[in-house]
Amino acid sequence: xxxxxxxxxxxxxxxxxxxxxxxxxxxxxxxxxxxxxxxxxxxxxxxxxxxxxxxxxxxxxxxxxxxxxxxxxxxxxxxxxxxxxxxxxxxxxxxxxxxxxxxxxxxxxxxxxxxxxxxxxxxxxxxxxxxxxxxxxxxxxxxxxxxxxxxxxxxxxxxxxxxxxxxxxxxxxxxxxxxxxxxxxxxxxxxxxxxxxxxxxxxxxxxxxxxxxxxxxxxxxxxxxxxxxxxxxxxxxxxxxxxxxxxxxxxxxxxxxxxxxxxxxxxxxxxxxxxxxxxxxxxxxxxxxxxxxxxxxxxxxxxxxxxxxxxxxxxxxxxxxxxxxxxxxxxxxxxxxxxxxxxxxxxxxxxxxxxxxx
Length: 358
Hints:
13 helices; 9 strands; flat; disordered C terminus
């Protein structure tokens, strides 16, 4: 999930002082990595240059916390040999979700002649820090992505309303990308249920209970060494009690659950591009790359292609669900790889979900 934290202080020592030794030998380099910009990520002054603002604004930037679903985090403890692939899949998906935010959510308001326009903008620097634990020593793969409040070359700070409005879509894209990237980089398969629960094929639900991440107290911020982390997880696993494995949907891995897609638009009077992107990403049970999701939405809904910011163009729910095309074409499965227009699968048919009606 993605959580936005408003930063009013430029102090970056919380990030530069945490070497995240729990992931030593598993990730590429240290915890800090630049998406844009440069410098020593262990140097507070270099990191603090990310935070940009204006004299009138007290907000200097944002900390975007991007966390992997629990079943994917626990893979670092269950399969240390493939943990580097898990972490690289996570980082690639973090970068993809930030790319979406920059394309669609980073705007500044330009008020001229009584007209309020949204102007696309760009962050000057982006730095992120990858950690592998929560404050209780449980597997918790997450990044702190730091960005400034004033975009590059702008005299104004960005419109935070747009950033918060697009954050759920960026989160859906991150999770979809992570499911996709995990399959590309490891032998594990992640999938999302119709109810929005993330799973990993073959991973018992008892691990979710063992490392639930929910505690009465927040816990003390500690510095864990890699050996301490491995030993902590080993002791935890001695308390593991199996609860069973949830079966994944049948059928081809590149198909979309159009019932899930349609359900996420339920109750809306109008639909924007960000709603469609989030619904599509969430409905891709086994994941899809961020580029593929965006390209598909732009191909199916060309009238929304230029939408960004808080004032996106809207369409009706019937158009969003492509009711007319469904009625015209009938029930056919959705293939998210070779999709050219909307189709719909009928689950009342016998046979596997991947069976096609020609």
